[in-house]
Design brief:
CATH topology of the largest domain in chain A: Rossmann fold
Structural class of chain A: alpha/beta
Radius of gyration of chain A: 26 Å
Number of strands of chain A: 12
Largest sheet of chain A: 6 strands, parallel
Number of helices of chain A: 13
CATH architecture of the largest domain in chain A: 3-Layer(aba) Sandwich
Oligomer: homodimer
Chain lengths: 344, 344
DNA sequence: CGGATAGATGTTATCGCTATCATCCAAAAG
DNA sequence: CTTTTGGATGATAGCGATAACATCTATCCG
């Protein structure tokens, strides 16, 4: 705390304090602090000096009340400790660079109730737009978003009933592609490791895609191991693969809801002396760094996490600036591709 | 956007709109929205209904201008895609639960310049406190923090000249402990893998601790492999261990600046048919999930990441509430311990 | 039954900034 | 030399909420 001689805590200086010291009006200080406004060089310098001497920092919350622009966008992701989503957050930050908008990040721990709380907390601060992960929200959360009067971007998914705009891909189709690719290599007895809770919609969709693809191929699709709620730990993958091999010892390939559980499964197999992919093949989802680095390197589905973030932020800023909002593509599909490596 | 019949975009409702509809004054609405204030049940219900009908959401930025409480604290971490730091963020969030304070998270990508930008951006929004990672900042960043008049908590480190309060540990001592533990098991020829850039102060301190411990033990301390700037990838760890084995083929144990590079090194050794720990032992730092799950399981230094966050947030709220700030411990040391596993 | 008491509500005055309009002045144009 | 023009600056009025104080009722008590 900055104290002044008499021992009381000094109030932080305001714009008027700066103005007085520089011998100008508050309005001129406000202008000097904003790019592209007409303030003479001499005045600007005097103001800069006053700011420096006083240690003044603009109070943006007061400013945004007046200008009706808060200068930030909200993004809500399930977990920050998941590089897929943090890549998306990076994409958003990067795309926001230079727009004068700042990112306010929140994470839900995969809980829709927590998401609802966050949506409300964010909207109370009047973001200029909001980016969400996935398309399932609580009814109240959805209503708040619809009524907020700001652009809403849902990502990482293709919701059946989008609130506004979407930047994502079909998790089901991505998993189908993986199954087909591996079936094309001759695998027939597929197992799936991953939860099915309502909590992880993307996980459920991947699992549904797994079943769909196998049914279409006329292969058995009943080897499904579920585990608890996300976030899915590596250790859970390890346990699940043990479980799977006990129930269906002749499983040829185990597909996992994410690279993290796939990695857990892979390590557990090695501990048990099973050769991957000879004794059992393993594939993941997400193309995390670990998939490219582990031994054997992991087959997985690459998803354009960073691009999702970039494009979501781009669509957001475009929507904000749009004169006629109708011209914008409401749905942007992002790419995914199977990355075949040594584990299959 | 919500549109009204005549085609114009409806302004979002304000508290006065709610008040009018409920037949009360704005002040009563404000009270009804705040816990523990006296509003009759009947009025409260009418207000709730009006809020519901209008889809009103409180404008907190206006409220905080008036009440001079913004209701959030800022935290700045190097990377969100690093479970050590995101655990700290979780600890902060959890400890803030129920205090009415919300976390505003920013990440620097290990750049002090970016940190300075973030500090300024955060302070413009008038947080009630700020939590930083590490103790090195730009001079301007430091000055802004000192003058902000809010509690500042530096974490993950023991700065020589703290700005205000500290919750952390000595990265150097932690690494020394690891060296001593392994020396106690008979290892003599130690190598170190990790950068030394000014950019990653914690990494540099770990390296300094490595050298210090070996010198004290009378063992050679010159086997140091550096690589680029953080964030350190697993792949860099893989390259570094190859480099190390070329230069000093008889290295017995490689200590890495983080579990992530240690993991990369471990996998690379396996690819080259080297047995860990028989041909070469490897240890990491941070006790990431991967260290407990990989094969062989990794020896590492466990740091109380989550606790750092919890205690930092705790100290922050205590400082905010403190009548006499002097009674609070300025420095809280958090624990670390060596976790011996199969890789050494 | 009058005064004390406390709960319920309203009124007024900001909070720190910026939008808007007004003013002033010097340089350019005619 | 007058008129036009636009850059530089100032004065004023909010933005949407809440703090602080003022009122006005019931209810309670001796």
């Amino acid at each position: 705390m900055t104290k002044i001689p008499n021992g009381k805590i000094a109030e932080p200086p305001t714009m008027s304090d700066v103005a007085r010291r520089a011998g100008v009006s508050a309005m001129t200080v406000s202008r000097a602090l904003k790019e592209g406004s007409h303030v003479s060089k001499a005045t600007r310098e005097r103001i800069a000096q006053a700011i420096n001497e006083l240690g003044y920092v603009l109070d943006q919350s007061a400013g945004s009340l007046s200008s009706r622009r808060t200068g930030f966008v909200a993004a809500i992701i399930p977990s920050i400790n998941n590089s897929n989503f943090s890549d998306t957050a990076r994409g958003i930050t990067d795309a926001l660079e230079g727009t004068g908008l700042q990112l306010l990040l929140g994470y839900t721990n995969y809980s829709v109730d927590r998401e609802e709380e966050l949506i409300e907390a964010m909207l109370k601060r009047r973001p200029e737009g909001i980016i969400l992960t996935g398309g399932s929200h609580t009814p109240r959360g959805r209503r708040m978003l619809e009524q907020a009067g700001i652009p809403v971007i849902e990502t990482w998914d293709r919701p059946a009933q989008p609130i506004d705009k979407v930047v994502g891909f079909s998790n089901g189709e991505a998993m189908e592609l993986l199954v087909e690719t591996l079936a094309g290599k001759g695998y027939q007895r597929f197992g799936y490791i991953g939860g099915t809770t309502a909590r992880d919609t993307r996980g459920s969709q991947r699992r549904a895609g797994f079943v769909r693809a196998l049914e279409r191929l006329g292969l058995p699709s009943d080897r499904l191991i579920s585990f608890g709620v996300p976030p899915i730990s590596m250790e859970q993958g390890a346990q699940a693969v043990v479980n799977m091999l006990e129930r269906w010892p002749d499983t040829q390939v185990a597909l996992c809801v994410s690279d993290l559980s796939a990695f857990g499964a892979l390590m557990e197999c090695q501990r048990r002396g099973l050769k991957v992919p000879d004794d059992i093949a393993i594939a993941g989802f997400g193309d995390y760094e670990i998939a490219a680095c582990c031994h054997p390197r992991m087959t997985t589905v690459n998803v354009d996490c960073y691009g999702i973030g970039r494009q979501a932020a781009l669509k957001l800023t475009q929507t904000i600036q749009a004169v006629s909002a109708e011209t914008l593509e409401p749905i942007t599909l992002t790419s995914f591709r199977v990355v075949e490596r040594e584990s299959t």
